Structure to design on (814 residues):
């Protein structure tokens, strides 16, 4: 294939010249001419005809086909199956009955409440079908990812018709009138099973019942951030993206900066450019359409080109071409003829939203293109039949086409990822918990060379005490700066964009990952994290658990360390939100020292399909737990540090800075000979009231709760890193009621303060804890606090009777 000429057929302005060349080729080859006649709603433009001819010649030259006629016959089958799949997609939205003889439907055959993302799904049919043709012609499997997950009807329809759906789905929906009627009736079937889960395996978005699915695609834009980081060398990935999602997430146009042939497989990004969101044109369409977008992508390091997004053959050719281009670019770099970054091929598939069915190109095409329900509207019913009849293929024809498009097997089916997680080097001296994580992580990657490493870094990795990690792995750049830890093959993905860097790790399913961020700004990662958490949970429920290693999302430079940086930097919301997710999939832990931090990281990499949020101080902290205690703490979720838990009074700390305050309170109680216990709570989510059987299996053992948190406690005060109400709600089993339990934590007070000043402002110092404990016990606070200390926490005295002054000797000039 002549790649330059192939590219020119996308960009050529002289349609007459293209038509003349296509005519000449058709006259020379009857097979090409037969296919070029098109089928149903599939029409082949001259440029696409030339591209298919070139691809056929290339496939023959490589020995992948026995003749070019094989290619053209496959292309004819592709047209037929595309039409039939679009026919089925339209039925999925509107009909509850399917007749394979193509007869018109009666009013009663339509749904009372039609639902679907019909326009985008119709656009996705030729795209996914084109990938299937590329797979068949090259004999190579390709993984796929789709950012517009609401267009799943296209993939579900094609997989069912071509017998590439999961075996359970093929058994449930045989290719008969009854089987396909059940299939369309189950689409947006809102019924539930007795256990509360959906009765239908079909989803409004991609779910675990769609073969090959990796993500739901409900959060627009994240597929565009993840695709370049997903495949390993030797693998191929087709990323279906949307022009609407392009404006959703910053960073999708940075993919060319990250791709390296040495540690990445072939990626082929394809944007379905239909020009419309739900209510209006996309931003790309408003700014000049594909011509503007081509210019934009070129400026970002891509090699963009435009195809006819209505033609499945154009997609097949584009995938074939992009892979060749990428392979040749990698070869030039390997031979020293070029350097990174590669101009990453990027396909823009121009189409009309809902092409192939009445209502195409309108706002209504997004959901229900007919504008009215065919069940009750005769005109809508006539439009449905007109559209369906134009797409319909006889049963024998599309079944033969499906058989011809037989797919190659996946040579690398998903397999469990394992890591060698040796015992950490436990410490005894005071140390930054982040520095301890840094050293242990470097040790882990050294003993797991088979795992591709990705570190997500929104910035300030050194500031966050990850010096060894940065020195060993280095920032990935295309032009390394002298004397800076940068390298072309660096494994640290750095960008001032939390969504982009976390996506690098979420996509690295067969490697080992770590994300480090300021706690306040890590909140921006929540949408991406939640998408992975939900999909992995659904895999578990389907008895096909995710195979990827647990991913640690480390929130550091956290709320209590960022007193000096105003309230924008004082935000525990990520931990609070992730505590709301299912606790068997979303593990939120608060290590208090170096040993507990390393124990948490070790446990994370011993887990599968889970997201771990480690809230870790970067400040130097006293070492509180021995290695053995840290392991016990991780195993049980909580540990009694002082006293006997049978004592009537109990202090509970959750968070490193909170533990230091609790220890001071405990010292005062000890001085007063007051019997009490001090417990450290590492993982609050394990002490909740479980919401289902999977979460119940991950809860702390009843024996731990009975021994560490006995119900006979008379007064319990919790000092928490989070907002107090959050900990009481999620660790519900620890709440003995308002008469016996009080939680102190972040109450949205702050400013430019030091750590102790921030704790004072939020009424969660050691003195506040003692006052609360005394109140719950029915004792006067001055029994444990001096008058000056008590007045201070009441806002009537000197705060520095309770907390340390920020400067030595109260020197205001310091």
């Amino acid at each position: 294939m002549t790649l330059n000429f192939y590219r020119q057929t996308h960009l050529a302005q002289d349609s007459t010249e293209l038509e003349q060349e296509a005519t000449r080729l058709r006259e020379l080859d009857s097979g090409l001419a037969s296919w070029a006649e098109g089928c149903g709603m599939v029409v082949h433009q001259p440029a696409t005809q030339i591209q298919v001819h070139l691809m056929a010649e290339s496939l023959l030259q490589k020995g992948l086909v026995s003749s070019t006629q094989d290619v053209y016959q496959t292309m004819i089958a592709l047209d037929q199956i595309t039409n039939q799949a679009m026919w089925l997609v339209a039925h999925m939205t509107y009909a509850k009955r399917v007749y394979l003889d193509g007869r018109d439907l009666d009013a009663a055959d339509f749904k009372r409440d039609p639902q679907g993302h019909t326009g985008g799904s119709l656009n996705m049919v030729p795209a996914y079908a084109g990938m299937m043709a590329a797979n068949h012609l090259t004999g190579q499997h390709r993984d796929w990812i789709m950012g517009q997950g609401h267009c799943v009807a296209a993939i579900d329809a094609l997989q069912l018709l071509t017998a590439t759906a999961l075996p359970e789905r093929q058994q449930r929906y045989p290719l008969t009138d009854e089987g396909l009627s059940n299939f369309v009736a189950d689409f947006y079937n809102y019924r539930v099973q007795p256990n509360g889960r959906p009765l239908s395996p079909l989803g409004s978005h991609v779910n675990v019942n769609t073969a090959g699915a990796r993500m739901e695609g409900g959060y627009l834009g994240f597929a565009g951030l993840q695709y370049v980081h997903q495949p390993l060398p030797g693998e191929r990935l087709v990323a279906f993206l949307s022009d609407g999602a392009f404006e959703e997430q910053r960073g999708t146009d940075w993919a060319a900066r990250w791709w390296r042939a040495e540690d990445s497989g072939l990626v082929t990004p394809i944007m379905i450019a239909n020009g419309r969101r739900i209510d209006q044109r996309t931003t790309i369409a408003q700014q000049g359409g594909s011509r503007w977008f081509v210019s934009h992508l070129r400026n970002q390091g891509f090699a963009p080109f435009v195809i006819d997004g209505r033609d499945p053959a154009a997609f097949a050719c584009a995938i074939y071409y992009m892979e060749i281009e990428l392979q040749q670019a990698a070869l030039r770099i390997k031979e020293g003829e070029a350097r990174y970054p590669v101009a990453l091929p990027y396909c823009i598939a121009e189409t009309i939203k809902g092409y192939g069915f009445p209502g195409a190109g309108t706002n209504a095409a997004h959901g229900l293109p007919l504008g009215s329900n065919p069940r009750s509207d005769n005109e809508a019913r006539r439009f449905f039949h007109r559209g369906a009849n134009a797409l319909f293929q006889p049963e024998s024809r599309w079944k033969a086409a499906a058989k011809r498009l037989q797919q190659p097997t996946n040579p690398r089916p998903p397999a469990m990822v394992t890591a060698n997680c040796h015992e950490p080097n436990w410490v005894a001296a005071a140390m930054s918990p982040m520095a301890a994580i840094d050293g242990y992580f470097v040790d882990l990657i050294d003993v797991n060379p088979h795992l591709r490493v990705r570190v997500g870094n929104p910035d300030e990795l050194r500031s966050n005490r990850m010096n060894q990690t940065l020195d060993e792995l280095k920032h990935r750049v295309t032009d390394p700066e002298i004397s800076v830890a940068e390298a072309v093959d660096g494994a640290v993905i750095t960008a001032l964009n939390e969504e982009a860097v976390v996506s690098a790790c979420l996509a690295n399913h067969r490697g080992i990952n770590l994300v480090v961020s300021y706690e306040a700004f890590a909140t921006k990662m929540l949408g991406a994290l939640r998408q992975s958490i939900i999909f992995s949970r659904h895999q578990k429920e389907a008895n096909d658990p995710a195979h990827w290693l647990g991913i640690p999302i480390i929130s550091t430079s956290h709320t209590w360390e960022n007193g000096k940086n105003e309230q924008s930097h004082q935000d525990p919301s990520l931990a609070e939100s992730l505590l709301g997710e299912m606790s068997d999939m979303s593990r939120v832990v608060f290590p208090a020292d170096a040993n507990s931090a390393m124990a948490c990281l070790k446990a994370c990499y011993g887990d599968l399909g889970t997201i771990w949020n480690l809230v870790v101080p970067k400040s130097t902290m006293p070492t509180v737990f021995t290695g053995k205690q840290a392991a016990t703490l991780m195993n049980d979720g909580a540990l009694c540090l002082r006293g006997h838990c049978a004592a009537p009074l109990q202090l509970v700390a959750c968070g490193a800075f909170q533990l230091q305050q609790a220890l001071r309170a405990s010292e005062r109680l000890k001085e007063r000979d007051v019997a009490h216990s001090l417990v450290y709570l590492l993982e609050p989510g394990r002490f909740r009231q479980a919401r289902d059987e999977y979460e119940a299996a991950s809860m702390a053992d009843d024996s731990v709760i009975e021994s560490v948190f006995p119900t006979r406690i008379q007064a319990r005060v919790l000092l928490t890193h989070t907002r107090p109400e959050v900990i009481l709600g999620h660790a519900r089993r620890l709440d003995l009621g308002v008469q016996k339990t009080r939680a102190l934590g972040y109450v949205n007070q702050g400013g430019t303060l030091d750590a102790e000043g921030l704790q004072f402002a939020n009424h969660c110092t050691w003195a506040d804890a003692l006052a609360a404990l005394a109140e719950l016990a029915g004792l006067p606070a001055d029994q444990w606090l001096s008058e000056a200390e008590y007045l201070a926490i009441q806002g009537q005295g000197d705060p520095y009777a309770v907390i340390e002054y920020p400067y030595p000797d109260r020197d205001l000039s310091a």
